[in-house]
Amino acid sequence: MKHLSIDELKRANARHLWHPMASPQASQHAPPDIIVRGEGSWIWDVDGHRLVDGVAGLWSVNLGFGRQEIRDAIVAQLDELAYYNVFRGTTHPRAIELAERVVGLMEPDGVAAVFFSNGGSDAVEGALKLARQYWKLQGEADRVKFIALRQGYHGVHFGGMSVNGNNKFRRPYEPLLPGCFHIDTPWLYRNPYSDDPVRLGAICAELLEREILFQSADTVAAFIAEPVQGAGGVIVPPPNYWPAIRRVCDKYGVLLIADEVVTGFGRTGHLFGTRLWGVQADLWWLAKGISSGYIPLGATAVAARVAQVFATSSSPLATITHGYTYSAHPVAAAAALASLEILERDQVVANAASQGAYFNERLADIARHSRLIGDVRGIGLMACLELVSDQATRAPLKGSARETGLVAREAYKRGAMVRTSGPNIILSPALTIERSQIDLLCDALAGAFKAVEG
Ligand SMILES: Cc1ncc(COP(=O)(O)O)c(C=O)c1O
């Protein structure tokens, strides 16, 4: 197969490739970086420039690049069985083994079954449907509504977009799914309620209760939240929030859905974000880290009490008439099995916790020396630097928040790949990152802020 030259790649990208979450016009003016190789937490661009990957692909390559065991598992699976479906009537060994593994990992969380998809958005869509179906099986067909958080991100399909809490992702595609409502996020840095985290957690849980009552509890299917909001700006809720929302959901019989697409498999320094808060959900959305991003894969994990209803109902509606050709794709399942093996064997989650603590300290230090950073927040190996135009008043950056782009370019020049989203610089390195690489990433960021702030 003939590959394109560097110049041809750059030209063809500008001409023919539309990028997710980017305007085709902007991609012409500011061409994307072409990444050609990865090894551990290092990546190289097409011009031979080496960088520490502060993004882990896209919160996904949690075990770093170039893992021989994952590669071997993929190749062996391609040799053995490249594809077979798991629709009614057939299955295959890797799907079964991965289901065993995921349910085994999540047994302490009360999980009994898992439904595979191709990525996070697919997992979201499937679970929204399963939640409605669950209530029909329970004889409460009116429970169709979803309540979610502002700033939440739940993928891009119509259901996920409708529960997303950021207007930017919703507006171009409206009208969305009816019956989706949003309440305020317990966001310490920006909220009209309280500067006290515990009080804020309690108030925001009360907002959920009020919304459920306003909608009428017997019409609400589920409440949805990320244990730590990722794309919305790494918003870490106060520790009393999740236990409180679990209590509210229980009081009104509302299902609690945890979107663990980012937080699942160790990113917060805990195996799952719900464990960080000591709470069990009813449905979990998983993707990214499940296969370390080597092959697309998502999953919806189902708590025993929900699975039980599907397993015992005699209703014709108990058939799951949802699924994708590539649900539990054997090659993706093989990649996931190898990834989960490494995750456990190498105690990767413990590394995320200890490196994460150091990482967040270093970022706090960068913030102390900057006049652009208004807030630094994070947990484990997910972090956000929120830039402001005035630190004292917390006034947001003006217009298109060009400062974040400038900082990211300067960091890139200094050997660090970081991600920007509006006023935020978002960081999510591999969970296997080493301390020296964190230092490099943070030194590059510190230098970038100095260069931009002058
Ligand atoms: C919390 C969360 N949910 C869902 C999704 C959607 O996943 P995907 O992009 O794999 O469809 C994402 C993607 O970043 C996410 O961060």
* Structural class by sheet pairing and helices: alpha/beta
Indicate the proportion of strand residues: 15-25%
Distance between the termini: 48 Å
Helix percentage: 40-55%
Biggest sheet features: 7 strands, mixed
Mean pLDDT, as a whole number? 97
In which order are the strands of the major sheet placed?
4-10-9-8-7-5-6
Q: How many E-type strands?
A: 16
The kinds of small molecule bound in this structure are:
pyridoxal-5'-phosphate
Short description:
With about 450 residues, the chain is of the alpha/beta class.
Question: Could you explain how this protein is built, in words?
Answer:
The relative contact order is 0.15. The protein contains 16 helices and 16 strands. Helix 9 (197-215) runs parallel beside helix 10 (241-252). The protein is globular. It is of the alpha/beta class. The strands form 3 sheets. A 7-stranded mixed beta sheet has the order 4-10-9-8-7-5-6, with helices on both faces. Strands 11, 12, 13, 15 and 16 form a 5-stranded antiparallel beta sheet that branches. The protein has a 4-stranded mixed beta sheet with strand order 1-2-3-14. Strand 12 (382-390) and strand 13 form a beta hairpin. Bound molecules: pyridoxal-5'-phosphate.
